[in-house]
Amino acid sequence: MKFYLSVLKNYTGFSGRSSRSEYWMFVLFNIFFLLIAGFLDNIFGIAVPEIGSGPISGIYLLAVLIPGLAVAVRRLHDVGKSGAMILISLVPIIGGIWLLILLLTDSNSGENKYGINPNDISEKGELIYNESINNIIFIFIICFFLEQLIRFLAFNNYIMRGSNYEFLMPLRKVLFFIITAAPIVFSTVIKNKSKRVVALILSVSCLLYYFWLW
Predict the structure, then answer these.
(1) Please, what is the average pLDDT of the chain?
(2) 68 with 116, same domain?
(3) 148-to-24, 63, 144, 176, 206 alpha-carbon distances in Å
(4) What one-character DSSP code corresponds to residue 112?
(5) What number of other Cβ atoms are within 10 A of residue 11's Cβ?
(6) Same domain, yes or no: 146 and 68
(7) Is pLDDT larger for residue 73 or for residue 133?
(8) 192, 139 in Cβ contact below 8 A?
């Protein structure tokens, strides 16, 4: 949670560097909170049927837009790239893949022109990967699975059915696949073997449900 909060505190900080852990934990928590927001949209009956979410999700996305851009720029700085490289995502397919690779790349060792290596900062800032992060990932995957189960049981007749926007279907399919496949990736970093197995089973179940739905 400290990674997520640190990004929000540095709301408009486009200078400096952000570690891979900080960036991806921010992404992880965003997915988690978006799932909750989407769930609330459906509970209150304000979700748009074609996308399965509504104004609560929209407000949350607007709230994290600037800090999300800022941490992405700092992540690029961390691998020695200009923040302007984020614009490469505008290039269809290849641009997005290239940007993803950069965001997954480990930090430049030592200091670069954008600042010191964030992994060298100590707790009076040391960024330590510990068991609490594993537990957070595990809980997230369980919540993700339950949310998908609730959608299947209660909202399946309303989500992604009878869309009037057929031209958006390919894009929605790609986005839903990425969101559904993400927990599998997160599962692999859980150090506790039993939790990792449970998380993988739940994640794969969600992915299979995705393929069945489409």
Answers:
(1) 74
(2) yes
(3) 22, 24, 6, 12, 7
(4) B
(5) 12
(6) no
(7) 73
(8) no
* Structural domain boundaries, residue 166: 130-214
Q: What is the pLDDT of residue 68?
A: 92
Pair of tokens at residue 45: 């009956």
Which residue type is seen at 10? N
Q: How many domains does the chain have?
A: 2
The four Cα atoms 210, 196, 68, 93 give a dihedral, to 10 degrees, of: -50
Examine the pLDDT at 115 and tell me if it is beyond 50. Answer: yes
Cα atoms in the Cβ-side hemisphere of radius 13 Å centred on 92: 1
Place of tokens 């700092």: 74
Same domain, 49 and 138: no
CA dihedral 36, 142, 139, 176 (to 10 degrees): -50
pLDDT at 122 over 50: no
Q: Are residues 19 and 122 in the same domain?
A: yes
pLDDT at 159: 43
Whole-number Å distance between alpha carbons of 145 and 150: 9
CA dihedral 43, 45, 48, 49 (to 10 degrees): 80
Distances (CA, A) of 175 to 13, 45, 86, 169: 28, 23, 19, 10
pLDDT in tens, 150-171: 555 544 444 444 444 444 455 4
Sign of CA dihedral 112, 26, 21, 86: negative
How far is Cα 210 from Cα 204, in angstroms, rounded to an integer? 10
